[in-house]
Design a protein that fits this description.
13% strand, 18 helices, globular, single chain, 434 residues, six-stranded antiparallel β-sheet, 13 strands, three-stranded antiparallel β-sheet, alpha+beta
Length: 434
């Protein structure tokens, strides 16, 4: 029986992912998934996508707003684009999406089943049922607007779907995993993210089995009309119910504030990431550091990427920390360092390509980088948080800093005078990516 892995609050954010970031998220997300499949297999990638904490950190390391509901849409979109060219090799396919794309999920699954030989109609029915459970059986005030279905060639799958509650400005993300699933109506979720919003009707809870059975009996014995009359009578005379003790689950509370604050980060872990990059970088990335433009800052980003590739679930309770790899599109904790981002993608692509040929040195170096972070963490002092952020912002133009507000100006220049800004104005225009 699959179990819930936790929950989290996701503030609703509007806006669109700019094309320059969407393109990089597609490339980074695709190659990171490729590395995970190479190391651990595609079933492990599905497990991770079914883990709410890891999913949030994955989006943060790709430069999205570290705490917002937009991570769900943008990550699924990036994976749909990034895994499509690798689908035959990896045996993974992303169906569905937001709005009208979510409604096309069943037909996408049927088409895939016809081509690959798994039960497409059965998975299409699963897709509809999963959505129905999270709208009818779990009545928590959130209306579904996004449904992503990731399926492997052998029919294993993970579903990530999200609902919104406009009245409270919150989103809730639901994770389903086929591994170990024996019932769609009895504790099926791998995890549910979202803020507690008062009383919730959750007929998928293990303790609701008697209620589900009683509802069927009532329908058969009384009929809908009689049930409505009885319910009205009960409502008029009802006393306040006794409080119900709920089972506790790991809970990630993502605040509404945009800026990343020291309290949002496990500071010894951040310090360990920085220290590991400084210590292991010169040993394991000697050739890399000799490439013009690639330096210590890229290795710092790789240390956080390495943790997303190899870290244990307990290390993703502070997704804000992973925004220190490539910043955030809204300048929190700092603008996206596009040069660093591009070098990260280049290093990972090289590492994965060499690993396919049996040369594991580069991927092995990333693994050692993660191991060093965990080793140092036991002795690390809290990172000088404000100093790290201030240094990153001061060097933002040097790193190709960019956000939804434009390029970061070089010291003494306005944004419109920045050479990077002028370069962007002269570049060919691309169609927007949502």
């Amino acid at each position: 029986m699959s179990q819930r892995s936790g929950s989290a609050d996701l503030p609703l954010h509007g806006g669109r992912v700019p094309p320059w970031l969407a393109d990089r998220m597609t490339r980074l997300g695709g190659v990171m998934c490729e590395a995970i499949v190479h190391h651990y297999g595609r079933e492990e990638l599905l497990r991770r996508l079914g883990h709410p904490f890891w999913f949030q950190a994955f989006g943060a390391v790709m430069g999205m707003d570290w705490h917002s509901s937009g991570i769900t849409t943008s990550v699924l979109g990036a994976l749909k684009r990034g895994l499509a060219p690798r689908a035959k090799e990896l045996g993974l396919h992303v169906c569905g999406g937001r709005g009208k794309h979510s409604r096309k999920t069943p037909e996408e699954l049927v088409a895939l089943g016809d081509r690959l030989g798994f039960d497409g109609p059965g998975l299409a029915a699963t897709s509809r049922l999963v959505a129905k459970v999270d709208t009818a059986a779990v009545q928590d005030g959130f209306d579904l607007y996004l449904h992503g279905f990731i399926v492997s060639d052998d029919g294993h799958w993970v579903v990530v779907q999200q609902g919104m509650n406009g009245d409270v400005g919150q989103a809730r993300r639901y994770h389903w995993l086929s591994e170990g699933l024996t019932s769609f109506v009895e504790a099926p979720h791998a995890g549910i993210e979202g803020e507690a919003g008062g009383d919730i009707v959750n007929l998928t809870d293990l303790r609701a089995a008697a209620s589900r059975s009683a509802q069927i009996d009532l329908l058969e014995s009384l009929g809908p009309g009689r049930i409505a009359k009885e319910l009205a009578a009960i409502s008029r005379s009802a006393q306040p119910p006794e409080p119900i003790v709920q089972m506790t689950l790991p809970h990630l509370s993502l605040p509404a504030h945009h800026d990343v604050r020291p309290a949002d980060v496990v500071l010894p872990r951040l310090q360990a990431n920085l220290a590991a990059a400084a210590e292991r970088g010169p040993k394991d990335f000697t050739q890399l550091l000799q490439i013009p433009g690639v330096g210590a800052r890229t290795v710092r980003a790789l240390a956080l990427v390495a943790e997303v590739l190899h870290g244990a679930p307990c290390r993703f309770t502070d997704p804000a920390r992973f925004a220190f790899a490539h910043g955030g599109k809204d300048r929190h904790p700092f603008p996206v360092p596009t040069k660093v981002y591009d070098h990260t993608i280049k290093v990972l692509k090289s590492a994965v390509a060499n690993a396919k040929l049996g040369r594991e040195e580069e991927l092995g170096a990333l693994r050692r980088l993660d191991a060093e972070s965990r080793r140092i963490e036991r002795f690390a002092d809290p990172a000088p948080f404000e100093k790290v952020v201030a240094e990153e912002r001061a060097r933002s133009a040097e790193f190709g800093g960019r956000s939804v507000f434009g390029w970061e100006p070089q010291p003494g220049l306005t944004p419109n005078q920045s050479p990077l800004r002028r370069e962007a104005l002269l570049a060919p225009r691309r169609s927007p990516v949502s």
